[in-house]
């Protein structure tokens, strides 16, 4: 077939994974054009701030669950066979407190908190444990993965480069700007892939007003947690959450967090940081040997804006000003754990738009 020139807009985990999977197919010349690249730390760029892990909250039978399901095998392969990717296995325990039954977090985490979630047959070593006390309604555990984003994002770039993908800095005000002269070295652009995350709300030609920030705040410490932990809720309000995970390859332990919808504040809230640390030490005494938060060895505090979308992630195609655009954005807090599933579907949509496969 004649070569197809593709521009991927955005270099977060969605854009990089989509570019990588497309680059493994013949007949495409791919440019990733983005304002922010791996190595940048900016409030507009969500991917570096993520935990990141595999802890599905998608509902059984939905597209989101299928994306998550299709992402497990690639992540498992990276953890098993590619240590240079910065992905490692970690045992995960999910604790469901009785008092959280009607909370917003419990509703959001309903599938994750279930004793029989859809992913029980996907992840290794899933088991439902008897609650140790009347405080808990259920406890489940399984083998998950935790991703060191500072290693993994450059790893994705390196794999793309090996396959001939070109990277360049660019700032677009309209999605059609990606087709302008000079963006792709081959001249004409046959298709644009929109992986702009939160910027999809203001990008001309897209302007998706259902996209909004869901602010997250974390504390990264040198202390070892031993295992990944998630709790069904907190006593500090419905916007706050408790999760703990240790990144691969010396990336530190992530203590989180919060889910603050429509909050844009880029600086850490010191009072929230104290609450996060107190919750973590209570849930995981191993962090400090049973001592207080003053025994946490803090590396840094972080704030990221999850690119959430009211109706879930958008993975679909449309023509904008005569050019096919494949959208892959709006993943909220699930960007890594749905990354391969969404990218696989986006690549299928590219091939459909280019007339290389039947319509989905």
Please tell me about this protein's structure:
By secondary structure, the protein is an alpha/beta fold. The protein has seven helices and 15 strands. The chain has helices at 13-23, 63-81, 104-108, 110-113, 149-162, 270-283, 339-353; strands spanning 4-9, 28-34, 87-97, 127-129, 136-147, 166-169, 191-194, 211-221, 228-231, 240-246, 253-258, 260-261, 298-309, 314-320, 323-329. The strands form two sheets. Strands 3, 4, 5, 8, 9, 10, 11, 12 and 13 form a nine-stranded mixed sheet that branches. A six-stranded mixed sheet has the order 6-2-1-7-15-14, with helices on one face. A hairpin with a 6-residue loop joins strand 10 (240-246) and strand 11 (253-258). It is globular, with a radius of gyration of 20 Å. The protein starts with a strand and ends in a 7-residue tail after the last helix. Residues 6-349 form the FAD dependent oxidoreductase domain. Its cofactor is FAD. It is found in: Peroxisome matrix. FAD binds at residue 196.
Features:
single chain, 360 residues, nine-stranded mixed beta sheet, six-stranded mixed beta sheet, 29% strand
What's the overall geometry? globular
| Low-confidence blocks of residues | none
- Helical amount: 10-25%
Give the terminus-to-terminus CA distance. 21 Å
How would you sum up the major sheet? 9 strands, mixed
CA radius of gyration:
20 Å
EC number: 1.4.3.3
Pfam family, one: DAO
Protein name: D-amino-acid oxidase
Family: Belongs to the DAMOX/DASOX family.
């Amino acid at each position: 077939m004649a070569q197809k020139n593709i521009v991927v807009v955005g270099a977060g985990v969605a854009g990089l994974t989509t570019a990588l999977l497309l680059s493994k197919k013949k007949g495409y010349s791919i440019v990733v054009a983005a304002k922010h690249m791996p190595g940048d730390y900016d409030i507009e760029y969500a991917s570096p701030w993520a935990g990141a892990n595999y802890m599905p909250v998608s509902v059984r039978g939905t597209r989101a669950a299928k994306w998550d399901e299709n992402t497990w095998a690639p992540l498992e392969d990276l953890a098993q066979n590619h240590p240079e990717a910065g992905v490692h296995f970690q045992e995960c325990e999910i604790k469901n407190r009785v008092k959280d039954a009607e909370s917003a977090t419990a509703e959001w985490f309903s599938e994750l908190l279930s004793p029989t979630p859809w992913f029980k047959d996907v992840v290794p070593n899933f088991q439902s444990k008897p609650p140790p006390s009347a405080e808990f309604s259920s406890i489940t555990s399984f083998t998950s993965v935790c991703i060191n984003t500072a290693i993994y994002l450059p790893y994705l770039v390196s794999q793309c480069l090996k396959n001939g993908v070109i990277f360049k800095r660019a700032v677009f005000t309209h999605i059609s700007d990606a087709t302008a002269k000079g963006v792709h070295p081959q001249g004409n652009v046959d298709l644009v892939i929109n992986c702009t995350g939160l910027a999809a709300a203001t990008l001309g030609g897209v302007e998706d007003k259902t996209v909004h920030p869901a602010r997250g705040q974390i504390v990264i410490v040198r202390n070892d947690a031993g295992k990944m932990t998630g709790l069904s809720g907190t006593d500090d309000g419905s916007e706050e959450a408790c999760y703990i995970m240790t990144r691969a390859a010396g990336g530190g332990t992530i203590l989180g967090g919060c889910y603050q919808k429509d909050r844009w504040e880029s600086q850490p809230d010191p009072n929230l940081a104290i609450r996060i640390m107190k919750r973590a030490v209570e849930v995981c005494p191993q962090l400090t040997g049973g001592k207080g938060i003053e025994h946490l060895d803090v590396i840094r505090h972080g704030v990221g804006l999850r690119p959430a979308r009211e109706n879930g992630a958008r993975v679909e195609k449309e023509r904008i000003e005569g050019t096919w655009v494949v959208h892959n954005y709006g993943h909220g807090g699930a960007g890594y754990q749905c990354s391969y599933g969404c990218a696989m579907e986006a690549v299928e949509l590219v091939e459909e738009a280019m007339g290389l496969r039947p319509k989905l």
